[in-house]
Specification:
The protein has 8 helices and no strands. By secondary structure, it is an all-alpha fold. The protein has one domain.
Length: 245
């Protein structure tokens, strides 16, 4: 059931507090007690399963229910193009940073910032669709953003930033999730079926890119074990069960 603009914004404000807090918490964990490679890979597998379950259980069924195939195709194509372009931009800026010897990985931070903005948009979209969809998407994205906060802070420290500056930078990026959520809820509350199909498909492409090209790619940099593989399915099952309650 669709939610009106004002109600959607209020609901999004509540939901988005959790992923924003997760970004800050992840940055603090990276400073105070950074996990080892195996634990990091386990979290990445679990987060990938969680996001995939939210995609399969919430985003795709709602997208099919809108019944606007041309708009869905356009949104999916646009989402794919944006994510691929962001990946290419981030790599290009990082190569430039390596050649100049700058401490701050600008390309990496730009890509992360846009990623968090899009995550916020998905939270706002969930709030506009209804309480259950918003809650499931928020839980999935909170777990994902917890890992982003952790990995971004570790990356910044490895690049020579102080711990305080790394935490502050990551926390500031986390606030972009709030901007995306509130803006998305305001724009999508009471939106037409065509607009919802466009945005849902865009979000589906972004989530697929996140799982396949980021979380699982990085997770497989560590030697794969049965335990790590099981964490993906545990994450998927967790969201699947929660959605059915």
């Amino acid at each position: 059931m669709m939610t009106g603009p004002s109600a959607a914004v209020a609901q999004a404000a509540v939901f988005v507090a959790f992923p924003v807090a997760a970004a800050i918490l992840g940055s603090l964990v990276a400073v105070l007690r950074p996990p080892g490679p195996k634990a990091t890979s386990a979290v990445q597998h679990f987060a990938a399963g969680v996001v995939m379950a939210a995609l399969a259980g919430e985003v795709l069924p709602d997208l099919r229910g809108e019944g606007s195939l041309p708009w869905a195709i356009a949104g999916f194509a646009a989402g794919t193009a944006v994510m691929l372009a962001l990946g290419a931009l981030g790599r290009a800026l990082d190569r430039k940073q390596e050649s100049t010897g700058a401490k701050l990985p600008v390309g990496f931070l730009v890509a992360v910032g846009i990623d968090l903005l899009l995550d916020g948009l998905l939270v706002g979209m969930g709030a506009a669709l209804g309480a259950q969809q918003g809650l499931i998407l928020t839980i999935a994205l909170t777990i994902e953003i917890l890992f982003i906060g952790l990995s971004v802070t570790l990356n910044l420290i490895r690049n020579g930033l102080s711990r305080t500056r790394a935490v502050a930078t990551t926390s500031g990026l986390g606030l972009l999730t709030g901007v995306g959520a509130l803006g998305g809820a305001a724009a999508l509350g009471g939106a037409s079926n065509q607009t919802l199909a466009l945005v849902l498909a865009f979000g589906a492409a972004a989530l697929l890119y996140l799982v396949v090209e980021e979380l699982l790619t990085e997770a497989h940099e560590h030697t794969e074990t049965a335990f790590l593989g099981a964490m993906f399915f545990l994450g998927f099952l967790t969201i699947y069960v929660m959605a059915g309650l």
